[in-house]
Specification:
Chain lengths: 557, 345
């Protein structure tokens, strides 16, 4: 190679990568930027009112929700991930994928079903009253429609995020590390606390911050439970008080909150930049639990599955049994097709975007690139409606500009090119769910030691070969995890779909919402159940693929 | 990921769909496009009938009102929507103020729809009426003890009242109506008294309040009549039983009348199919559609010549508030702030 050739492409490449990654990231940050831009307008007198009356409630409730759900998902997700990841007990293979099932249940649906079961008029309390002859004053029953109730509901359907990422991390851990710690005399407890957990920390924190963002953005469940949070406040100010600016300012405040969270997460990850050094090819033997503990492990895994899936899905199935003949017609298949197409298409698209940004950051670790990627990652914490409007406004502005130009110069109208199209919808999904994929991809990338690249290059592999023969096999489980997360998220997504979709285009989630918001819960059950069923297939397939991607199974060996 | 040909077909299908959806409205002949805040179930059967009778294709997007209005506004002159359908008069008034509606005077619409239920200049028309009376436990409350909304703030109802959150547009409209009649100061005192009488912190929807009465958690509730109607005609035994324990009381019959709101529609300012949109409006205000509204969703027809459904008839006649429903929209923001101050969650 002569000097000229080497110098020139290198400089150009640098620019191309940086530009591409920063460009894509900024584009995806467009909705969030729109929110900030709107928020820059002068504050109205509504703020005075908010500060005087409800703002403290919004902040406090949102904080409790975020911390509570974060903690709850760790408590449920980490032990189950460890048990199914490294131990052997009855039903372990089955629990591996079954524990993911709660994520297919939208948060507002689990809130509805538990209310139906547990409130004063529900079957549980009625049976108690009948059995013991109690009346209203004779007993105290915890109220499900409360802040702790909301924390519980959200934790039950969100813990799979932590479980997934944690389990992938536990599976990646090599036998050597664990054996070394064992040979140094550490017992199972100590090994778990001092080796396994710290090694998995980046993944755990990534999972928890995803969960916390989802909790902050939740609208349906908290609204039904009558809890004032930032999200319900945004809608109240916007639609009730008709003040879009103040709503955007509230949303911006929420985003700052999240940004702080993300920076903290980043800092904690930087301190804990572990790369495995063990032989990846060796599969650690599963920990054989003594028989007493075996059944304890099985019941520990059964609990979240029971409360997060079997009970709510059972209630949905019971309702479906009764109402399906009236509500299911020829349109059902069309709804399912639309949902699956959107979820599948956007999962692939978002995975590609996440890979692009993830690698961009790895190859060009500059503050500017990092900042742009963080900006693109904020969408996850924005309530879906706010994000959708953040897509709608700039797209409409582009349409207007192009149309105005065409009218002036060509004498014809181009009409709406972006607004009200599936493209707008896919864009909104990308802006919203990118972080789900990105966190997973990044967690995967941290597991690839930089020295592996060097080793492969020294052995004569071209960069592309390094990607296909080293990175992709190592990343496989992370990529599949990302696909699954986005697929299920899009399947459940409601607000953006509702606002941005084209004419005569409905999905299962839209149909579920329409019936549920009309307080026809039983009628909505068939469609909610269809969402759950549509999510189960990919959950099983991907979970299989993830366990096969375990060291000792993957192509690297 | 592992199967490139599969993702390829998926991508091309998505692209195909995209192109079809982009071009379809432009190619079609006689059509009308609707942005509807009424749920698909509560409007689609009527639209299908309309298409059958007139040969006009109807394209529908449903959504929440404020968001549809936002979409309409941001799309501007290129908006494909011809008709904006909402389930709340306040939103129609807001749409009118935002300049996204046009006036469509029609003799037929004026004849069928009373003046309180439409815009004076014909920018929008109400299509169905819902009422928000007091519901009470048959076994614990005598109707003679009830009189007005204002009376619900009296201390004898302490711990007896259930009502949903003030996030609900139904409560916001009700309070806006109170402000219009009694002024802000008096309404705020009333709201504080009402909040002090709550049996529990507000939660759930209207049906949940009715169920709470049936379960003995409270004696009185505020709820829209069609929810009670829906429960009476529900396929769920438990809902039927709960509804059977609850009765309707029409408040304020000697004074301002029962709080009502309408669902309605207006033709958009940049409608490309204006005539078809007006035809559809007239169809929706016509006898057949009005009968359907009354029977399927247990709402009151706007057209006084059309009898309400049997379920509604059983609750007796009532005097409705004659305040123009547009006023409710104007006062909505004030109502929300007032409820914040009163501590109505």
């Amino acid at each position: 190679m002569n000097g000229k050739r080497e110098l020139w492409p290198r400089a150009a490449q640098t620019d191309r990568w940086t530009l591409l990654v920063a460009g894509v990231a900024l584009l995806l940050a467009l909705p969030v930027c729109t929110v900030f831009f709107t928020a820059l307008q002068p504050a109205s007198e509504v703020w005075r009112h908010l500060v005087d009356t409800v703002l403290a409630d919004y902040v406090l409730n949102s904080m409790v929700l975020m911390l509570g759900v974060g903690l709850g998902t760790l408590i449920i997700g980490v032990p189950t991930a460890w048990l199914t990841g490294v131990c052997e007990f009855p039903g372990r293979r089955w629990f591996e994928w079954a524990l993911l099932l709660p994520m297919a249940i939208p948060a507002y649906i689990i809130a509805y079903t538990y209310t139906g079961l547990l409130d004063f008029a529900g079957p549980v309390q009625s049976v108690l009253r009948e059995t013991f002859g109690w009346s209203r004053q004779d007993y105290a029953f915890p109220e499900i429609r409360s802040l702790p109730g909301a924390v519980l509901m959200l934790a039950l359907v969100l813990y799979p995020y932590v479980y997934l990422l944690a389990r992938a991390a536990f599976l990646e851990q090599s036998a050597a590390v664990l054996e070394v710690s064992r040979s140094l005399g550490a017992g199972p407890w100590r090994r778990f606390l001092t080796v396994t957990l710290p090694l998995a920390r980046p993944a755990l924190i990534a999972g928890m911050s995803l969960v916390q963002m989802e909790a902050l953005a939740d609208y349906g469940a908290v609204q039904y439970f009558g809890i004032s949070t930032f999200t319900t406040g945004i809608f109240r100010v916007w639609f009730g008080m008709n003040d879009a600016t103040a709503a955007a300012q509230l949303a911006a405040l929420l985003l700052l909150f999240v940004f702080t969270l993300l920076v903290l997460e980043r800092l904690s990850r930087q301190q804990a930049r572990f790369h495995h050094t063990g032989q990846r090819t060796q599969r650690p033997p599963r920990l054989q639990l003594p028989s007493r503990l075996k059944w304890l492990a099985a019941s520990a895994c059964m609990m979240p599955l029971l409360f997060g899936f079997l009970i709510p899905a059972g209630q949905l199935a019971a309702w479906t049994w009764r109402t399906a003949p009236q509500v299911i017609d020829g349109r059902f298949l069309e709804l399912a097709r639309h949902s699956l197409l959107l979820a599948g298409g956007s999962a692939l698209l978002i995975l590609l975007l996440a890979l692009l940004l993830g690698y961009g950051q790895r190859l060009r670790p500059r503050p500017s690139v990092r900042l742009a990627v963080r900006g693109a990652g904020l969408g996850y914490a924005v309530p879906g409606t706010v994000l959708a409007i953040g897509v709608m406004l700039p797209f409409a502005a582009i349409d207007r500009t192009v149309d105005g130009w065409a009218r002036e110069w060509l004498g014809l109208s181009t009409g709406l090119l972006l607004s009200g199209t599936l493209f707008a919808l896919l864009f909104a999904y990308s802006a919203r769910f990118l972080p789900a994929a990105l966190h997973s991809v990044e967690a995967g990338l941290t597991r690839i030691r930089p020295s592996m690249d060097d080793a492969a290059r020294v052995l004569g592999a071209k960069p592309r070969e390094v990607l296909w023969r080293v990175h992709i096999p190592i990343l496989r489980s992370s990529l599949l995890t990302a696909l699954l997360l986005v697929f299920v998220d899009v399947l459940k997504e409601l607000p953006a779909t509702l606002i941005l979709r084209p004419f005569n285009f409905n999905t299962l989630a839209v149909r579920t919402y329409e019936l549920a918001s009309d307080e026809r819960l039983a009628d909505s059950a068939s469609f909610a159940l269809a969402i759950v069923l549509a999510g189960i297939g990919p959950v099983i397939l991907l979970s299989r693929a993830i366990s096969h991607a375990r060291p000792g199974h993957d192509a690297l060996s | 990921m592992s199967n490139p040909s599969k993702s390829h077909t998926l991508l091309s299908t998505v692209c195909g769909l995209l192109i079809t959806l982009l071009t379809a409205p432009a190619l079609a002949g006689s059509e009308v496009n609707i942005y509807s805040a009424r749920k698909e179930d509560l409007i689609k059967p009527l639209l299908d009938d309309f298409s059958k009778q007139t040969g006009i294709t109807v394209n529908l997007v449903t959504g929440k009102e404020a968001e549809l209005l936002q979409r309409l506004q941001s799309e501007g002159i290129n908006s494909p929507a011809d008709l904006l359908l909402t389930s709340d008069a306040g939103r129609l008034a807001a749409a009118h103020h935002a300049g996204v509606l046009q006036t469509t005077p029609s003799k037929l619409l004026e004849k069928n729809i009373p003046a309180a239920y439409r815009d004076p200049e014909g920018y929008w028309y109400g299509l169905s009426v819902r009422a928000r009376p007091i519901l009470y436990a048959k076994d614990r409350v005598k109707p003679a003890e009830l009189s007005t909304y204002e009376d619900l703030a009296a201390s004898r109802w302490k711990g007896k009242i259930c009502v949903r959150s003030s996030d609900s547009i139904y409560n916001q409209s009700l309070v806006a109506g109170m402000i219009a009649h009694h002024g802000e100061a008096k309404t705020e005192t009333w709201a504080k008294g009402l909040v002090a009488n709550f049996a529990r912190s507000p939660k759930g929807g209207d049906r949940d309040q009715i169920k709470a009465i049936a379960a003995g958690e409270c004696d009185l509730a505020l709820a829209n009549t069609y929810y009670l109607g829906g429960m009476i005609n529900s396929s769920d035994q438990a809902e039927q039983e709960a509804a059977a324990q609850v009765a309707v009381f029409w408040p304020d019959t000697k004074t301002t009348g029962v709080h009502v709101n309408v669902s309605g529609a207006g033709v958009t300012a940049h409608a490309k199919n204006r005539d078809n949109a007006v035809k559809l409006l007239e169809f929706l205000a016509g006898d057949q559609a009005q009968h359907w509204y009354a029977s399927v969703n247990n709402e009151y027809p706007v057209n006084p010549a059309i009898p309400p459904s049997a379920t509604l008839k059983a609750w007796g006649e009532f005097k409705a508030d004659t305040l123009n429903v547009a006023k409710l929209g104007e006062l909505n923001a004030d109502a929300v702030k007032l409820m914040d101050r009163a501590g109505w969650k």
